[in-house]
Fold this protein.
Amino acid sequence: MTFSFLSLELKQREADGLLRQRRVLQSPQSALVRVDGEDILSFCSNDYLGLANHPALVQAACEGAQRFGVGSGASHLVTGHSAAHHELEQRLAEFTGLPAALLFSTGYMANLGVITALLGRNDALFADKLNHASLNDAALLSRAMMMRYPHANLAVLERQLAASTARRKLVVSDAVFSMDGDIAPVPELLALCEKYDAWLLLDDAHGFGVLGKTGRGVLEHYPLLITHSPSRLIYMATLGKAAGVFGAFVAGAPELIAWLVQAARSYIYTTATPPMLAAALLESLRVIAAETWRRERLVELVDVLRHGLKLQHWQLMPSDTPIQPLLIGSSQEAVRVSESLCQRGILVPAIRPPTVPEGTARLRITLSAAHSVADVQQLVNALHELEIE
């Protein structure tokens, strides 16, 4: 068998406006980047706090490399768990206010590790329909019964929980939804988990560092969460978005973390991340907590965008976070608008199915503390011009 049939599949994707292509970044992440040989204003990274090229983090990484080298050389359970990893886990637990934390290489691997370590064939998982793909893939791999409920629909979720006779129940949800930018009704989700004896796994990839006065994410956005029921809460956050570096962690009860060390295959059977990155992340946590102006800048930029963008045919979806989706509709039109912005020196990605539902292709505008008000106003002006063309 040859791969010739894939050529037809690729051509069909291109005709449907769904063909994905990579751009080559030739500079550090920032508001202004160099991509494919061109300098361009970027609204498409998840570097929400502008830390990916922060001098203090770069220096910490260099010092970490001098101390620990550039590779860990082994898995955490062999000889790859360095003092930097260990200190970072302790600091992450303190930062989130949860008893213990465990580092993973990526958020995808963290979600796979947690769900497959906790659930099996006799268990049930309840998932918001707009959850990240990693949560859905993990549910399938766990072999638990998976039930999806309409986005943020607590009434349907309660009916599903009430009807379930599963041995173990796990509700999983993005905390901030990556393509819509809205925040999950976490206190209500936790209340349902308490009522029906379930765990709650929150994927706070896009809230950690951004939400809360000191950037502690959805746990600080809803400050009663931790004191209310820490034993039911499983908290996952990534460290390559607002934190500016790489990796992810899971935080929760000591027994949970101890079990993941024993049973999370995506933790056990992979090489540990370079310790130099853990050194950079220790500095990142300091900056996240200390430099509150970065979150204040994000609030200001969201306000500028939402008040300045008055369009007839395209609509900003409801969001108070740095993720500001502009609903276009068709995939072809979303690609056209994205390419037209690119010709004006502005980079905003077109997000298309299957990442989002059919008919809801959009521009995913992401704001960063590295942006200025003038940067956002340039985007607003360009979108106004494009809509009337």
